[in-house]
Design a protein that fits this description.
356 residues, alpha/beta, Purple Acid Phosphatase, chain A, domain 2, 2 domains, 7 helices, 21% strand, elongated
Length: 356
């Protein structure tokens, strides 16, 4: 059997979005919808026999009605194509508390689907001669008491030692480790980390861990990453990466002290429909002047901020704080509509960090 492996769609991510004039929707929502539908197109045109989704369907565990509708429309296509689909929650979908329903698996209450299976707890599922062991986020994996002759692939949403970690953060794999000790799986396919990567499992060096990664760039920390999904063969355990064309993100760490110098720096840059971030030296260029200059190009959106450093030397702690600041800024932008309230919130954050 051959089919799709994908994860981390993050429907509802709002960072650096604008309102689409034609639809009135968030442009980042439309970006994610396009990439997800491109994956479904690939599944249908290549006669996929399964579609495995490894968590983080939504960016938050409280999707809006519009975000629900986007997800439902995508999975309706898989249902219409009769492609058996497996889906479970990631940490962004997860809602803690006994009896509470998480965001991704709640989709099963929107439709009566015959081909789409939702997993809310640890389970096994056979695909031909292959057994998948499904461990949704927030679940413990019950140790396998009897090893079958079938090959076994673990599907989960967590961190394994050695993975390249981005803004999604490190997540303990303590619920997976007991199963791998003294047990055996042939391969691990996991969601959570946005950078597509393959590594050797630290708990069993005979086993590889593959992260298909996110399908869109969530923030500028991912600007250089090729986004993709996987085409997987259950008979050979061959995993082939399939690239996605996603909206470009361009970050310019300018050394310019005048607009003419900035113009020279950006000469030849292909800004076509890109999200652009410009960082400037402190107390040099006017933010609005920089925005006006960048907007003369065919961009999607632009943000400008002043750097705290005056050269390339910067400590690891400062890099961490800069990354944290960007994450906080994205959260503030998502939660507060009033620019004045956004500025006030960021001022408070800076006051707290400035006192460290």
């Amino acid at each position: 059997m051959k089919g799709i492996v994908t994860s981390d769609w993050h429907i509802g991510v709002k960072s650096h979005a604008i309102t689409d004039a034609a639809t009135g929707l968030s442009s980042r929502l439309l970006d994610v919808e396009l990439s997800a539908n491109n994956i479904v197109d690939y599944a249908i045109s290549n006669d996929a026999e399964f579609f495995w989704f490894l968590g983080d369907l939504f960016h938050t565990n409280r999707p809006t009605p519009t975000e629900w509708a986007v997800a439902v429309s995508i999975f309706d296509r898989l249902e219409s194509a009769h492609i058996p689909t497996l889906i479970f929650d990631g940490n962004h979908d997860f809602v803690s508390g006994k009896g509470k329903i998480s965001a991704a698996t709640a989709l099963q209450y929107f439709r009566t689907w015959g081909c789409i299976e939702f997993y809310e707890r640890t389970a096994t599922r056979k695909w031909g001669d292959l057994t998948t062991i499904v461990v949704p986020h927030g679940c413990d994996l019950q140790p396998i008491t009897e090893r079958t002759n079938n090959r076994q692939v673990l599907l989960c949403h967590t961190t394994f030692d050695g993975a390249t970690v981005g803004s999604e953060g490190y997540m303990m794999a303590s619920h997976v480790r007991p199963m791998l000790k003294g047990q055996h799986v042939d391969l691990i396919l996991s969601g959570h980390h946005h950078k597509p990567q393959r590594l050797v499992c630290a708990y069993d060096r005979r086993v590889d861990v593959i992260y298909p990664g996110s399908i869109e760039k969530v923030n500028f920390g991912e600007r250089d990453e090729q986004k993709e999904f996987g085409w997987f063969d259950t008979e050979t355990l061959e995993y082939r990466s399939v690239g996605l064309e996603t909206r470009p993100m361009i970050q310019i760490d300018s050394q310019a002290r005048t607009l003419d110098e900035l113009q020279a720096e950006i000469a030849g840059v292909d800004f076509d429909e890109a999200l652009v971030k410009v960082t400037t030296l402190p107390r040099t260029l006017n933010k609005e002047d920089v925005i006006d200059m960048i907007r003369q190009h065919n961009i999607h959106n632009v943000t400008v901020s002043s750097r705290n450093d005056s050269g390339p030397a910067i400590t690891q702690a400062a890099v961490r704080k800069q990354n944290d600041a960007e994450i906080v800024q994205e959260i503030v932008a998502a939660e507060l509509d009033d620019p004045a309230e956004q500025n006030r919130a960021m001022q408070l954050v800076q006051e707290v960090w400035g006192g460290e």
